[in-house]
Amino acid sequence: MTNGVKVIVMARDGNVWEGEGDSCSMENKVGPFDILGEHAQMVAPIFGKITVRRDNKIIWEHTLAESGLCKVKGNQVTVWVGI
Fold first, then answer.
1. What is each CA distance from 58 to 22, 45, 47, in whole angstroms?
2. Buried-most residue among 17, 29, 42, 56 (CB within 10 A)?
3. How many CB atoms lie within 10 A of CB 61?
């Protein structure tokens, strides 16, 4: 994948979703943010929705029932939900 992100969303009982997109959008206390390819490393608490887009189309969206945690390293976004 070129300039995109691999997204892995995990819950206590296993993977919720895994795939690749151009961007992954989430929200934290500061507001909404987007993760694109080559994003700086970060760890952040999240809430609300996780949206993955490819070619300007939503390919996967999930509304969090509880807060989650997102980690970005390299071109991979790992999200733990229900923690």
1. 10, 22, 18
2. 17
3. 12
How do residues 34-69 score in pLDDT, each as one tens digit?
A: 999 999 999 999 999 999 999 999 999 999 999 999
What tokens were used for 10? 């995990």
Strand partners, 70: 44, 79
Structure tokens, 41: 């490393």
Architecture of the domain defined by 5-29+38-81: Sandwich (2.60)
Q: CA angle at residue 83 from 13 to 46, to 5 degrees?
A: 120
Provide the whole-model pTM: 0.91
Domain boundaries, given as residue ranges, for the chain: 5-29+38-81
